[in-house]
Specification:
This protein is α+β, with helices and mostly antiparallel strands. It folds into two domains: about 10-175, Aminotransferase class 4, branched-chain amino acid transferase, N-terminal domain (D-amino Acid Aminotransferase, Chain A, domain 1, 2-Layer Sandwich); about 185-350, D-amino Acid Aminotransferase, subunit A, domain 2 (D-amino Acid Aminotransferase, Chain A, domain 2). About 25% of the residues lie in helices and about 30% in strands. Strands 1, 2, 3, 4, 5, 6, 7, 8 and 18 form a nine-stranded mixed β-sheet that branches. Strands 9, 10, 11, 12, 13, 14, 15, 16 and 17 form a nine-stranded mixed β-sheet that branches. Helix 3 (about 95-110) packs across helix 4. The chain is globular, with a radius of gyration of 21 Å. The structure holds pyridoxal-5'-phosphate. The site of pyridoxal-5'-phosphate has 14 residues, from helix 6. Its EC number is 2.6.1.42.
């Protein structure tokens, strides 16, 4: 592959942004992914020409041909990261470079062009700068969630990597994930459905993985659980992750997360927690964990807590675990649990309340 060119992004801001009063009404109770800011960034890619026609424009519907390849063969990738208000009123994003690099890895897996890291970050920065008033006030867990994504826009029904793509960044204010306080999530460990297979695209952040997870998710709900946990696709034995969050097992003062196998998505939160845990004096490691070990160690008391992690919810303690023929409940979820200490420590870095030892915050002024 040739070195990707870095396009300029032309500014064409909205002449009719939402009024301050309307925006404040939304920010009072934003929920998650329900409202979008005034602008979006779009950049085109064409074979032979590379990235071009970068624009910041008013948020609005896209118009494209019904035979656009993404609609038929799902050549699509996405990212998720957050901008937080800092104590001095400025805004910073959390580890955008990690998301930019993962976006490139996802692009390679789906035979799509890579967005240069600088372009990915610049697109996010420009959007946050123009829609800065949409970043909730400092203090709570509220943030502005950024959703960069890329779709195949070439027209045609022949199966091949497209020769035209659109990279887009949109933003959505996000309220506290648990407005009433953190609540443990119940989990259905599926013994027959799998999320990803060796050699598949489980380590790429692509909509197809989510489409594949929805039926298992519906089954989890049918079993009275909120989320599905997937096991490996070969032995149906090794714990992988939830549909959209990674998992951690807490053994006293050691936290353990499943080793990346190629079918697990490498979460930025997962990676950050390996370091945050060490900063707080815990041990952290990657290891294989089997479903039998999970149950046995919970029953013996060695496994003290389990939690899920991801950008949207940061950390969610796991409560009840159900699988075919077995059910157990994890401890933890209380304010002095390891999960909650890690959650507060990570959020404090993101909100600018604690020292940024690892250089994770990207200041936008
Ligand atoms: C995005 C995602 C995660 C969490 O990744 P973060 O970078 O921490 O938000 C975990 N699993 C899957 C399948 C995902 O798509």
């Amino acid at each position: 592959m040739t070195t990707p060119s870095t396009p300029t992004i032309e500014l064409k801001p909205s002449s009719h942004p939402l009024s301050g009063a309307e925006r404040e009404a939304i920010l009072a109770n934003p929920g998650f992914g329900r409202h979008f800011t005034d602008h979006m960034v779009t950049i085109k890619w064409t074979e032979g020409r590379g990235w071009h026609d970068g624009q910041l424009v008013p948020y609005g519907p896209l118009s494209f041909d019904p035979a656009s390849m993404v609609l038929h063969y799902a050549q699509e990738i996405f990212e998720g990261l957050k901008a937080y208000r800092q104590p001095d009123g400025s805004v910073a994003t959390f580890r955008p470079e990690a998301n930019a690099r993962r976006f490139q890895a996802s692009a390679r897996r789906l035979a799509m062009p890579e967005v240069p890291v600088e372009t990915f970050i610049e697109a996010c920065d420009l959007l946050v700068q123009h829609d800065k008033d949409w970043v909730p006030e400092h203090g709570g867990e509220e943030s502005l969630y950024l959703r960069p994504f890329m779709i195949a826009t070439e027209v045609g029904l022949g199966v091949k990597p497209a020769s035209e793509y659109l990279f887009i960044v949109i933003a959505s204010p996000a309220g506290a994930y648990f407005p009433g306080g953190v609540k443990p999530v119940s989990i259905w460990v599926s013994q027959d459905r799998v999320r990803a297979v060796p050699g598949g695209m489980g380590d790429a952040k692509t909509g197809g993985n989510y489409a594949a997870s929805l039926l298992a998710q519906a089954e989890a709900i049918g079993h009275g659980c909120e989320q599905v946990c997937y096991l490996d696709a070969v032995e149906h034995k090794w714990v992988e992750e939830l549909g959209g969050m990674n998992l951690y097992f807490v053994y006293g003062d050691k936290i353990v997360t499943p080793t990346l196998t190629g079918s697990i998505l490498e979460g930025v939160t997962r990676d950050s927690l390996l370091s945050v845990a060490r900063d707080l004096g815990y041990e952290s490691e990657e290891a294989r964990v089997s479903i039998d070990q999970w149950r046995r160690d919970t029953e013996s008391g060695a496994l003290t807590e389990v939690f899920a992690c991801g950008t949207a919810a940061v950390i969610t303690p796991v409560g009840t675990v159900k699988t075919n023929g077995a059910e157990w409940t994890q401890g933890g979820g209380t304010s002095d649990s390891v999960a909650m200490k890690l959650r507060d420590a990570l959020l404090d870095v993101q909100r600018g309340k604690a020292e940024d030892k690892h250089g994770w915050m990207h200041e936008l002024g």
